[in-house]
Specification:
There is one protein chain. A hairpin with a 5-residue loop joins strand 5 and strand 6. It contains 7 helices and 7 strands; from the N terminus they run H-H-E-E-H-H-E-E-E-E-E-H-H-H. It is α+β, with helices and mostly antiparallel strands. The structure holds zinc ion.
């Protein structure tokens, strides 16, 4: 049985396994049989820039290939968060990972068993209660009880993700769109044309969940 390893990773192989499963999971988020689209191609290319690096020491914690932090960095954590990649970690483990990635600040935020504090504009805190749940509250007035799994998800999505990605921009300006449209159309035409070449057909095959027994597409 394959299990998603949960950060923090002590060895490079664990980080590499995590990264591989994340990419496979993102692939599965396509519609069944849907080939890789241009945005997916860009997403995976970006994530691979932030793949784990061994630094020549496979028995040490992996670093990010692009950032000077332990793997996974904030870019990977944002993809984990927004895709709801089901990592079996605890809220405290998420907090430790956010400290490692520099998303939380050890001088300002608190990550310890039974106690989590985070947030800049609005401070939020969670304390483990005798009820077997986290008692969460925010300076904005919210109060709630969460399971550990729920708090782990809340902590991650409120800190690691970027700005809400949809719409791409909130104040669309027609002149700007008009200026970019020709180049984008040309790029898409090139992309579609390239998909017909043998090399791309083979590459794209890896993005298509194959029907059992069906030949690769
Ligand atoms: Zn990175």
């Amino acid at each position: 049985m394959v299990e998603i390893p949960a950060p923090p990773f002590e060895r490079y192989a664990e980080g590499r396994h995590f990264h591989r499963l994340l990419l496979l999971y993102l692939r599965e988020l396509k519609g069944a049989g849907e080939p890789v689209g241009f945005h997916q191609y860009l997403l995976v290319g970006l994530l691979n820039v932030h793949a784990p690096a061994s630094g020549g020491a496979g028995d040490r914690p992996p670093g990010c290939s692009a950032c000077s932090v332990r793997y996974p960095c904030r870019t990977v954590l944002a993809a984990v968060s927004d895709s709801y990649f089901p990592v079996p970690w605890t809220a405290v483990a998420v907090g430790g990972c956010l400290l490692d990635a520099g998303v939380l600040d050890p001088e300002y935020d608190t990550v310890q068993p039974g106690r989590l504090v985070w947030g800049r504009k609005v401070r939020q805190s969670a304390t483990w209660s005798a009820s077997g749940r986290w008692r969460w509250q925010s300076d904005a007035g919210g109060r709630e009880y969460y399971t550990d799994e729920q708090l782990a998800g809340l902590l991650l999505i409120e800190t690691a993700r970027g700005r809400y990605p949809y719409h791409f921009v909130s104040d669309e300006i027609e002149d700007e769109v008009a200026a970019l449209r020709p180049a984008a159309a040309e790029r898409l035409t090139t992309w579609e044309r390239g998909l017909g070449t043998p090399v791309w057909r083979e590459e794209r095959r890896f993005g298509v969940p194959r029907q059992r027994g069906a030949p690769p597409r």
